[in-house]
Amino acid sequence: MTGRRRFAAGEFTAADLVERKGSTRVSVCLPARNEEATVGTIAEVVRAELMDKLGLVDELIVMDDHSTDRTAEVAEAAGATVVACSDVLAHLGNQPGKGETLWKSLYASTGDLVVWCDSDVANFSPHFIFGLLGPLLIDESIGYCKGFYHRPVGADQRGGGRTTELVARPLIALLFPELGEIIQPLAGEYAGRREVLERVPFVQGYGVEMGLLIDVCRLAGYNAIAQVDLGTRVHRNRPLHELSSQATEVMQVALHRADRTLVNTAITLHRPGFGDTEITMQERPPLIEVPGYFRQAL
């Protein structure tokens, strides 16, 4: 990257960020599906430390993606505003999926800066939010900030990120080498300016992070993307056999972004011993194209 576009969360102090924030409105959105075990703790920290104590965050939304457990109840008790995906833009249909949840949370939120954090993080602390907001608040040329971190699996401090290492990174090297310095392209912790986020499409499923990274780069330029070291992230790691569908979705998005003729958007994933999975890549349009969106361009 040209210029300074890599940071560490520890560089940013609460007092400095609050001062730099000024009148800028900040939303923290937590996409959640059956995360009752962890979402409450995350919401409590954001509410107590970043909203009530510091005033750094103005809005905390837990976007409930058709949970069947107590995710909504726990999040609301912790001080979050809980919004059901099925209630947002319902006339456009309801399609469970991470990207759909992110897109609808952008619609439902009001911040000039929007921060997303996965709801299964077991060691969440305020520095996750400090780190992601810092680059955006100190440099107006930065429009999108990706987190990176150590993801330990057992005793292996570098054991996480299997889909990244086996799928995303090779695809980036082959098709989008300009993004080669992005340390964790599939990280679930990132933030951006609404004026950027509202102008890119959102893939509805697990390919959303890959799609956003490519599309933001094309829209705003590589130097509008920053990275921040968030330290160590502890979360639920899926068994290997559950990653096939996720990896396929990431591949679909990357290949489709490179050349729309390279791959079908609807396929059947055959996994002997596990049955077949139908995978369809669908995406939502930029929000500025959606009637009724409050920031819609005139």
Stretches with pLDDT under 50, minimum 5 residues: none
Sheet/helix structural class: alpha/beta
Q: How large is the count of helical segments? A: 9
Order of helices and strands: EHEHEHEHEHEHEHEHEHEEE
Tell me, rounded to a whole number, the average pLDDT: 92
First and last CA, distance: 34 Å
Quick take:
The chain has 298 residues and is of the alpha/beta class. The protein is built from 9 helices and 12 strands.
Keyphrases for this structure?
single chain, 298 residues, alpha/beta, eight-stranded mixed sheet, globular
Can you give a write-up of this model?
The protein is of the alpha/beta class and 298 residues long. The protein is 34% helix and 20% strand. An eight-stranded mixed β-sheet has the order 1-9-6-7-5-2-3-4, with helices on both faces. Strands 8-12 form a two-stranded antiparallel sheet. A two-stranded antiparallel ribbon has the order 10-11.
